């Protein structure tokens, strides 16, 4: 913990030094308003009226615990991301060092410990919202996430994680994606898709934590949330063992105890018998163009546990395009109902002479409470009738 604290202080110091340039250009910057954590360090910039016109931050891989990169903390601050109650405004300058919206006479905006800037004294506004930060949790990317002492509002941008949190603590979720379909009675604000979430809408929900996934979500969206002072916990799940460990850690970051459903899911997969024979399958996920599961995926690892080897498992792409006519030898086509809805009339005809297994995409690709059902259902579903 001493190392984490030391890094936090170092990071905050780096940001303060960079912001000296902004203050000298005529901005009012209150360093007491830093949202300080290992995901990001940010401070608001105010114009002469006291309005926040920018949120400047340092964020990125410099906080990885397995690297000592303090010398690299000269990362340019994110400029041009002016946040106000009306949403984003402003655009990044052409030159990294160019200030945005300079004002000639910054004025004090509140009372408290003072920080001197050109043209006046700026202090921390009394209305600033600050979280009481508790322990630092390390996510699956090795990034430390400073989580508030009390977590009462969570946004999930991954359907699997949504189901996991909802099954563990109903009512904790305040925001989910448009693709979050389970549980069926989910009552939370919809904040867009996994690849195009509405960052402003998420920030407006004032989450104590956002849970995300390295594959499902885009780094720029997660960086934008961090720059706005929102803690983001990222999972990275590529095997069944990854799933069990990652879900336990993610739920712990939500300040939740290990749920019974997670123990049941793990036990269900331990009980799955070792297959007596192995098959070789293609696992399409899309048509027009044809795309399939490739290398290093959770789906591929799950199928391997069930005795089904992916014929495209050595492809350098995780989800490569392919031509059904030029596939390596295979004796099975696994056709899920999502993201593309394969049916008995749409899919099997492309793989003549090979049996097709129509399966639930949720059971094949989701990690969470559905893992128990997957262990009980998929072995039989992957054995199509003769």
Automatic annotation (TrEMBL):
GO biological process per UniProt: negative regulation of DNA-templated transcription
PROSITE patterns xrefs: FE_B12_PBP, ICLR_ED
Keyword annotations: Signal
Segments forming domain Fe/B12 periplasmic-binding: 153-386
Domain IclR-ED: 1-91
Keyword Signal: yes
InterPro entries, A to Z: ABC_transptr_periplasmic_BD, GAF-like_dom_sf, HTH_MetabolicPath_Reg, Tscrpt_reg_IclR_C, Vit_B12_bind_prot
Region (Disordered): 83-105
Gene Ontology molecular function terms on file: DNA binding; DNA-binding transcription factor activity
Family matches, as Pfam families: IclR_C (PF01614)
PANTHER family: HELIX-TURN-HELIX TRANSCRIPTIONAL REGULATOR, ICLR FAMILY, HTH-TYPE TRANSCRIPTIONAL REGULATOR RV1719
NCBIfam families named in the record: TroA_like (NF038402)
Name of the protein described by the UniProt record: ABC transporter substrate-binding protein
Organism field: Pseudonocardia hydrocarbonoxydans
